[in-house]
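quick one before i forget lol
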Amino acid sequence: MKFAGVTQLVESSNWIGRGLLTCQMESRMIENVLLSSSVTITKYRQLEEKKDRAAIADFLKERFTERYVRPLDGDPDMKHGFCTMAISCLMIEALEFFRQGWCDTRNRSREAFCLFFQRCLEEELELGVFARLVDDFYKGVRCGILHQAETTRGWRILRKGPLCNPGTKTINATKFHSELEKALQLYCDTLKRSDWDSVVWQNLRRKMEAVIENCKPG
Protein backbone atom coordinates (compact mmCIF):
# COMPACT_ATOMS: atom_id res chain seq x y z
CA MET A 1 0.00 0.00 0.00
CA LYS A 2 2.89 2.29 0.74
CA PHE A 3 4.40 1.76 -2.69
CA ALA A 4 0.98 2.12 -4.36
CA GLY A 5 0.53 5.47 -2.64
CA VAL A 6 3.92 6.67 -3.83
CA THR A 7 3.10 5.52 -7.37
CA GLN A 8 -0.19 7.39 -7.33
CA LEU A 9 1.58 10.50 -6.06
CA VAL A 10 4.17 10.31 -8.85
CA GLU A 11 1.46 9.76 -11.48
CA SER A 12 -0.49 12.71 -10.10
CA SER A 13 2.60 14.92 -10.20
CA ASN A 14 3.32 13.84 -13.78
CA TRP A 15 -0.27 14.62 -14.77
CA ILE A 16 -0.04 18.10 -13.21
CA GLY A 17 3.30 18.66 -14.91
CA ARG A 18 1.91 17.66 -18.30
CA GLY A 19 -1.08 19.92 -17.74
CA LEU A 20 1.12 22.91 -16.92
CA LEU A 21 3.32 22.20 -19.94
CA THR A 22 0.26 22.02 -22.18
CA CYS A 23 -1.06 25.33 -20.83
CA GLN A 24 2.33 26.97 -21.39
CA MET A 25 2.51 25.66 -24.95
CA GLU A 26 -1.03 26.84 -25.70
CA SER A 27 -0.23 30.24 -24.24
CA ARG A 28 2.83 30.60 -26.48
CA MET A 29 0.82 29.49 -29.51
CA ILE A 30 -1.94 32.01 -28.78
CA GLU A 31 0.53 34.86 -28.41
CA ASN A 32 1.75 34.13 -31.95
CA VAL A 33 -1.73 34.29 -33.47
CA LEU A 34 -1.94 36.94 -36.20
CA LEU A 35 -4.63 39.56 -35.58
CA SER A 36 -3.69 41.10 -38.93
CA SER A 37 -0.96 40.33 -41.46
CA SER A 38 1.64 42.24 -39.44
CA VAL A 39 0.39 42.21 -35.83
CA THR A 40 0.37 39.20 -33.51
CA ILE A 41 -1.27 39.14 -30.10
CA THR A 42 2.18 39.68 -28.57
CA LYS A 43 2.78 42.69 -30.81
CA TYR A 44 -0.63 44.15 -29.99
CA ARG A 45 0.03 43.79 -26.25
CA GLN A 46 3.33 45.62 -26.70
CA LEU A 47 1.59 48.46 -28.54
CA GLU A 48 -1.05 48.63 -25.82
CA GLU A 49 1.60 48.73 -23.11
CA LYS A 50 3.27 51.64 -24.90
CA LYS A 51 -0.13 53.32 -25.42
CA ASP A 52 0.82 53.72 -29.05
CA ARG A 53 -2.45 55.13 -30.36
CA ALA A 54 -1.28 55.73 -33.93
CA ALA A 55 0.16 52.23 -34.34
CA ILE A 56 -2.95 50.56 -32.91
CA ALA A 57 -5.20 52.65 -35.15
CA ASP A 58 -3.08 51.62 -38.15
CA PHE A 59 -3.29 47.98 -37.06
CA LEU A 60 -7.07 48.22 -36.84
CA LYS A 61 -7.29 49.73 -40.31
CA GLU A 62 -5.04 46.95 -41.63
CA ARG A 63 -7.22 44.29 -39.99
CA PHE A 64 -10.43 45.69 -41.45
CA THR A 65 -8.92 46.41 -44.87
CA GLU A 66 -7.58 42.89 -45.22
CA ARG A 67 -10.84 41.30 -44.17
CA TYR A 68 -13.50 43.51 -45.70
CA VAL A 69 -11.98 45.86 -48.30
CA ARG A 70 -9.11 44.26 -50.21
CA PRO A 71 -11.05 41.09 -51.15
CA LEU A 72 -13.29 43.33 -53.29
CA ASP A 73 -10.42 45.13 -55.05
CA GLY A 74 -10.10 42.56 -57.83
CA ASP A 75 -11.40 42.44 -61.38
CA PRO A 76 -14.49 44.71 -61.57
CA ASP A 77 -16.10 42.30 -64.05
CA MET A 78 -15.93 39.55 -61.44
CA LYS A 79 -17.57 41.57 -58.69
CA HIS A 80 -21.18 41.13 -57.65
CA GLY A 81 -23.26 43.62 -55.70
CA PHE A 82 -24.78 40.87 -53.60
CA CYS A 83 -21.39 39.71 -52.27
CA THR A 84 -20.34 43.33 -51.75
CA MET A 85 -23.37 44.05 -49.58
CA ALA A 86 -22.91 40.85 -47.57
CA ILE A 87 -19.33 41.84 -46.74
CA SER A 88 -20.42 45.42 -46.05
CA CYS A 89 -23.00 44.28 -43.51
CA LEU A 90 -20.37 42.19 -41.72
CA MET A 91 -18.05 45.17 -41.70
CA ILE A 92 -20.68 47.49 -40.22
CA GLU A 93 -21.30 45.14 -37.31
CA ALA A 94 -17.60 44.58 -36.73
CA LEU A 95 -16.89 48.33 -36.78
CA GLU A 96 -19.71 49.16 -34.40
CA PHE A 97 -18.77 46.42 -31.97
CA PHE A 98 -15.31 47.92 -31.72
CA ARG A 99 -16.84 51.37 -31.32
CA GLN A 100 -19.10 50.22 -28.49
CA GLY A 101 -16.69 47.78 -26.87
CA TRP A 102 -19.22 44.96 -27.10
CA CYS A 103 -17.78 41.49 -26.60
CA ASP A 104 -20.43 39.49 -28.47
CA THR A 105 -23.30 40.04 -30.90
CA ARG A 106 -26.18 38.55 -28.97
CA ASN A 107 -29.32 40.67 -29.36
CA ARG A 108 -27.31 43.71 -30.46
CA SER A 109 -27.04 43.49 -34.23
CA ARG A 110 -29.99 45.77 -34.94
CA GLU A 111 -28.74 48.30 -32.40
CA ALA A 112 -25.32 48.23 -34.07
CA PHE A 113 -26.84 49.28 -37.40
CA CYS A 114 -28.94 52.00 -35.73
CA LEU A 115 -25.90 53.47 -33.99
CA PHE A 116 -23.70 53.19 -37.06
CA PHE A 117 -26.05 54.95 -39.48
CA GLN A 118 -26.93 57.62 -36.91
CA ARG A 119 -23.24 58.41 -36.46
CA CYS A 120 -22.82 58.58 -40.23
CA LEU A 121 -25.63 61.12 -40.31
CA GLU A 122 -24.06 63.20 -37.54
CA GLU A 123 -20.64 63.06 -39.20
CA GLU A 124 -22.14 64.02 -42.56
CA LEU A 125 -21.17 60.81 -44.34
CA GLU A 126 -23.36 59.78 -47.25
CA LEU A 127 -24.32 56.56 -45.47
CA GLY A 128 -26.29 58.76 -43.10
CA VAL A 129 -29.16 58.53 -45.60
CA PHE A 130 -29.89 55.09 -44.15
CA ALA A 131 -30.50 56.48 -40.65
CA ARG A 132 -34.19 56.95 -41.45
CA LEU A 133 -34.36 53.63 -43.30
CA VAL A 134 -32.48 51.58 -40.73
CA ASP A 135 -35.28 49.21 -39.67
CA ASP A 136 -36.23 48.38 -43.23
CA PHE A 137 -32.56 48.06 -44.26
CA TYR A 138 -31.75 45.84 -41.29
CA LYS A 139 -34.62 43.44 -41.92
CA GLY A 140 -34.60 43.47 -45.71
CA VAL A 141 -30.89 43.73 -46.51
CA ARG A 142 -28.78 42.68 -43.55
CA CYS A 143 -31.05 39.89 -42.26
CA GLY A 144 -32.26 38.97 -45.72
CA ILE A 145 -28.75 38.41 -47.06
CA LEU A 146 -27.21 36.81 -43.97
CA HIS A 147 -30.16 34.58 -43.05
CA GLN A 148 -31.94 33.86 -46.33
CA ALA A 149 -29.17 34.51 -48.87
CA GLU A 150 -31.33 37.12 -50.60
CA THR A 151 -32.72 40.58 -49.96
CA THR A 152 -36.33 40.84 -48.82
CA ARG A 153 -38.99 43.54 -48.39
CA GLY A 154 -38.47 44.68 -51.98
CA TRP A 155 -34.83 45.81 -51.69
CA ARG A 156 -32.66 45.48 -54.82
CA ILE A 157 -28.88 45.58 -55.05
CA LEU A 158 -27.22 47.25 -58.05
CA ARG A 159 -23.73 48.38 -59.03
CA LYS A 160 -24.78 51.61 -60.68
CA GLY A 161 -26.85 54.68 -59.97
CA PRO A 162 -27.13 56.69 -56.76
CA LEU A 163 -26.04 55.32 -53.41
CA CYS A 164 -29.66 54.79 -52.39
CA ASN A 165 -33.04 55.42 -53.95
CA PRO A 166 -35.64 55.05 -51.18
CA GLY A 167 -38.49 55.22 -53.71
CA THR A 168 -37.34 52.21 -55.70
CA LYS A 169 -35.53 50.65 -52.70
CA THR A 170 -32.29 50.21 -54.64
CA ILE A 171 -28.73 50.38 -53.33
CA ASN A 172 -25.56 50.88 -55.33
CA ALA A 173 -23.36 48.30 -53.60
CA THR A 174 -20.13 49.69 -55.04
CA LYS A 175 -20.83 53.18 -53.68
CA PHE A 176 -22.05 51.74 -50.39
CA HIS A 177 -18.80 49.88 -49.85
CA SER A 178 -16.75 52.91 -50.89
CA GLU A 179 -18.57 55.06 -48.33
CA LEU A 180 -17.98 52.37 -45.73
CA GLU A 181 -14.24 52.74 -46.26
CA LYS A 182 -14.64 56.42 -45.37
CA ALA A 183 -16.36 55.44 -42.12
CA LEU A 184 -13.44 53.14 -41.29
CA GLN A 185 -10.94 55.91 -41.98
CA LEU A 186 -12.90 58.35 -39.83
CA TYR A 187 -12.90 55.87 -36.93
CA CYS A 188 -9.13 55.39 -37.21
CA ASP A 189 -8.60 59.16 -37.36
CA THR A 190 -10.77 59.54 -34.26
CA LEU A 191 -8.62 57.02 -32.42
CA LYS A 192 -5.42 58.83 -33.34
CA ARG A 193 -6.60 62.17 -32.00
CA SER A 194 -8.45 60.89 -28.91
CA ASP A 195 -6.92 60.50 -25.44
CA TRP A 196 -5.85 57.04 -24.32
CA ASP A 197 -8.39 57.05 -21.49
CA SER A 198 -11.28 58.34 -23.62
CA VAL A 199 -14.39 56.23 -24.07
CA VAL A 200 -13.53 55.33 -27.66
CA TRP A 201 -10.21 53.86 -26.51
CA GLN A 202 -11.67 52.10 -23.46
CA ASN A 203 -14.19 50.44 -25.77
CA LEU A 204 -11.53 49.37 -28.27
CA ARG A 205 -9.35 47.81 -25.58
CA ARG A 206 -12.34 45.97 -24.12
CA LYS A 207 -13.23 44.59 -27.53
CA MET A 208 -9.62 43.58 -28.21
CA GLU A 209 -9.52 41.59 -24.98
CA ALA A 210 -12.59 39.72 -26.21
CA VAL A 211 -10.94 39.15 -29.61
CA ILE A 212 -7.85 37.71 -27.91
CA GLU A 213 -9.97 35.57 -25.60
CA ASN A 214 -11.73 34.12 -28.66
CA CYS A 215 -8.36 32.96 -29.98
CA LYS A 216 -8.04 30.48 -27.11
CA PRO A 217 -9.11 26.85 -27.68
CA GLY A 218 -12.63 26.10 -26.50
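fyi The CA atoms of residues 143 and 166 lie 18 Å apart.
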